[in-house]
Amino acid sequence: MGCTANGVAAALRAAAGAIAEHRDELVELDRAIGDADHGENMKRGFTAVVSSLDESVPADPAAVLKLAATTLISKVGGAAGPLYGTGFLRAATKIGDAEAPDVVAALRAALEGVQARGKAVEQDKTMVDALLPAVAAAEKAADTEGADIAAVLTAAADAAAQGAESTVDLVARKGRASYLGERSAGHMDPGARSTALILRALAEAAR
């Protein structure tokens, strides 16, 4: 069974709650290897998404994702706004009727959008290190007979969490953290962590 525009809106509200709850953690992660603004920027962006949804929920899942995309691009500072915004915009083009295969296609499109925008690849110590294994896990889960949206997103969230953890040992090759060189190792990438948090919230909402 697919999800509705209201279902996608509820999932985004859950994601906003997760980001708000972990705002300080994201700030501290970014303080170690960046500008210490990722947590506040993400909280501001997702708070604005919720405010827009409170005013009116668009008619279909794709329109809800487009609303989130444009809001994040305009409200989230730094690199995160364009990257997350592009991800949501690309996802909107594939969400369709929001059945499990559509969700997988949307995740794949989001990954491709983020990589096209940020030029990051695996082990660059970015959100791609969470998103790439998440997409692979979602695709694998979707191949399981009867896998629903919740199962697909749970698999993605589990893989994203592991991917975020894997960034701790990496040396950053993209973004501001790359200026630190070897000193960037030993710290989790904040973008990978926020990606994992969002996917976990989406999975829990889908349940």
How is this fold's topology laid out?
Elements: H1 5-21, H2 23-33, H3 38-55, H4 61-75, H5 80-92, H6 100-118, H7 128-142, H8 149-166, H9 190-206
Helix pairs in contact: 1-3, 1-4, 1-9, 2-3, 2-9, 3-4, 4-5, 5-6, 6-7, 6-8, 7-8, 7-9, 8-9
Characterization of this structure:
- There is one protein chain.
- With about 210 residues, the protein is an all-alpha fold.
- The protein has a single domain, classed as DhaL domain (Serine Threonine Protein Phosphatase 5, Tetratricopeptide repeat, Alpha Horseshoe).
- The protein is built from nine helices and no strands.
- It has helices at about 5-20, 25-35, 40-55, 60-75, 80-90, 100-120, 130-140, 150-165, 190-205.
- Helix 5 (about 80-90) runs antiparallel to helix 6, helix 6 runs antiparallel to helix 7 and helix 7 (about 130-140) runs antiparallel to helix 8 (about 150-165).
- It is globular.
Number of domains: 1
- Give the CATH H-level superfamily: DhaL domain
At the third CATH level, what is the topology name?
Answer: Serine Threonine Protein Phosphatase 5, Tetratricopeptide repeat
Portion in helices? 55-70%
What is the CATH architecture term? Alpha Horseshoe
| Topology pattern, helix = H, strand = E | HHHHHHHHH
Low-confidence stretches: none
Rounded mean pLDDT score: 94
Number of helices: 9
Distance between the termini: 12 Å
Instruction: Profile the largest sheet.
Output: none
Shape: globular
Using only C-alpha atoms, the radius of gyration works out to 16 Å
* Structural class by helix and strand composition: mainly alpha
Strand content: under 5%
**Count of DSSP E strands?**
0
Q: Name the CATH class.
A: Mainly Alpha
